[in-house]
Write a structure and sequence with these properties.
- The chain has 512 residues and is α/β, with parallel strands linked by helices.
- 32% of the residues lie in helices and 25% in strands.
- The chain is built from 14 helices and 22 strands.
- Strand 19 and strand 20 (450-463) form a beta hairpin.
- Helix 8 packs antiparallel against helix 9 (291-310).
- The longest helix has 20 residues, at 291-310.
- It is globular.
- The model is unreliable at 330-348 (pLDDT under 50).
- It binds xanthosine-5'-monophosphate.
- One of its GO terms (molecular function) is ATP binding.
- The active site is at 79 (nucleophile), 169, 171.
- Residues 195-387 form the GMPS ATP-PPase domain.
């Protein structure tokens, strides 16, 4: 396996991404958490130094662990990783005025290097630079293999020791041949690219067993992909030591609670408590129309309810969470202190501290598509794995204004027709997320010979990569017309349908 030492770059996780795409198993560890003993235990087959915001001359500048250059394994240094490598091995780094460079640059080759197979076939290669300091003298044993107008040492290597150091970021998309560089590096390091989800599953099961021992674990199951995969993986590892709690807040979609419970009980035979607390949640939400108050109310009750059920499982010492890698981008602070969490999981956040539980987070190292692959590996049906994301607060944030049982029922039915339409037209997998919302107003219509005064429904469908930005989905007019007709005909209480053409930004995906 490969070790990525994180010096605090915001794009370190992309390095992991590129390597996983090459079926190479890697782990990211912050520079201040790795030492000689760690290296001995981890026994990396290759090491990558990430970029980072620091300068090698700042006091307490992040440094690689002692002994890393004596491991006898290939090392690749990126940006700050290059500088720190040169600094440690006898080169020189300069900072200060005029040495910073951000953005596109073009690298010209200087001789041939196996690390650069596939590069320079059509001349200079575009790379992405983002650095304050730069290397002004390379370390003994190194040679230059690529230069750019502002970075004379854009690509350097000591081929006898297999130390490679580049000034740019090969992991970002703006370095189009970056993936080839990583591929060459892992080949040079002797990786075969045979890391699979099957192997990860076995590894994780062993890890969970050794972490938990014979203790009990509780897991909040939402029915979403992440918590489902977490639950099933833990069930495989621990069997009856695991109890899952499915908190039904009464804000789920049509038939959802029944489907989730059935799937887990019948297919996996896991201990599952169906906590039907819809009266509690809907009661507390009565008369509430402020979006933040809604969210906070649901969050607070969720914790209370979960605690109540967890207390029924005496001796539980662990809480399992479906935290994913992008949720825990661990960045390294300048002081070299502990890493900070930029984004925390918002659904069960706060629970472990409150309840004095230890965390089990088997998906912490995975990206979303890897979680799906693991889910498939664990036998979750494709229809389940490919489901669109669904927010923790559920339909509450798709019902702007006051939430009533009547409105929720109308919303559920309209949403079901809409999703059925999308599936029938074979569009479900093209769309990142689609749902109906019920608007806080009634409008006049005419049906048959009569006047109607009913709710308006708004349909939303977006394409996105990560939910951070999104574009509305360009349905055909025929599709929209047909869907509106079906909803109005099939769902009592709706007489008007809108399609939401707002992108994100400026809109958000959910209405609240
Ligand atoms: P927004 O509305 O912020 O949504 O553009 C981006 C993505 O996040 C989902 N979302 C949530 N997911 N708990 C969740 O688990 C929440 O409180 C929450 N709020 C929004 C939303 O469905 C979309 O996929």
């Amino acid at each position: 396996r490969l070790l990525i030492i994180d010096f605090g770059s915001q794009v370190t996780q992309l390095i992991a991404r590129r390597l996983r795409e090459l079926s190479v198993y890697c782990e990211i560890h912050p520079f201040n958490k790795v030492d000689e003993a760690f290296l001995a235990r981890f026994a990396p087959k290759a090491v990558i130094f990430s970029g980072g915001p620091a300068s090698v001359y700042t006091e307490g500048a992040p440094m690689p662990p002692k002994g890393v250059f004596d491991l006898g394994v290939p090392i690749l240094g990126i940006c700050y990783g290059q500088q720190v490598m040169m600094h440690c091995l006898g080169g020189h780094v300069e900072g200060g005025h005029g040495t910073a460079e951000f953005g596109r640059a073009y690298v010209t080759p200087v001789g041939k290097l196996p690390l650069l197979d596939g590069w320079f076939e059509q001349g200079d290669e575009q790379v992405w630079m983002s650095h304050g300091d730069h290397v002004s003298r390379i370390a003994p044993g190194f040679q230059v293999y690529g230069t750019s107008p502002n970075a004379p040492f854009a690509i350097t290597a000591d081929t006898s020791r297999h130390f490679y150091a580049v000034q740019f970021h090969p992991e970002v998309h703006h370095t189009p041949k970056g993936a080839a560089l990583y591929e060459n590096f892992v080949k040079l390091a002797g990786f075969k690219g045979d890391w699979t989800m099957g192997a990860y599953r076995e590894e994780m099961i062993a890890k969970i067993k050794s972490q938990v021992g014979d203790k009990k674990v509780i897991c909040a199951l939402s029915g979403g992909v992440d918590s489902s995969v977490t639950g099933i993986l833990l069930h495989e590892a621990l069997g009856d030591q695991l109890t899952c709690v499915f908190v039904d807040h009464g804000l789920l979609r049509l038939g959802e609670a029944e489907q989730v419970v059935k799937m887990f009980r019948e297919n996996y035979n896991l201990n599952l408590i169906h906590a039907d607390e819809s009266d509690l949640f809907l009661g507390a939400l009565e008369g509430v129309s402020d979006p933040e108050v809604k969210r906070k109310t649901i969050g607070r009750l969720f914790i209370e309810v979960f605690q109540k059920y967890a207390n029924q499982i005496p001796g539980a010492e662990f809480l399992a969470q479906g935290t994913l890698y992008p949720d825990v981008i661990e960045s390294v602070s300048f002081s070299g202190g502990p890493s900070v969490t930029i984004k925390s999981h918002h659904n069960v956040g706060g629970l472990p501290e409150k309840m004095g539980l230890k965390l089990v987070e088997p998906l912490r190292e995975l990206f979303k598509d890897e979680v799906r692959a693991l889910g498939r590996e664990l036998g979750l049906p494709d229809s389940f794995i490919g489901r669109h994301p669904f927010p923790g607060p559920g339909l509450a944030i798709r019902c702007p204004g006051e939430i009533t049982r009547e409105k929720l029922e109308i919303l559920r039915r309209a949403d079901a027709v809409y999703i059925d339409q999308i599936r029938k037209h074979g569009l479900y997998d093209e769309i990142w997320q689609a749902f109906a919302a019920i608007l806080p107003m009634k409008t006049v219509g005419v049906m048959g010979d009569g006047r109607t005064y009913d709710y308006a429904v708004s349909l939303r469908a977006v394409t996105s990569v990560d939910g951070m930005t999104a574009d509305y989905y360009p349905f055909t007019h025929d599709f929209l017309g047909e869907t509106a007709t079906r909803i109005i005909n099939e769902v009592k209480g709706v007489n008007r349908v809108f399609y939401d053409c707002t992108s994100k930004p400026p809109g958000t995906i959910e209405l609240e």
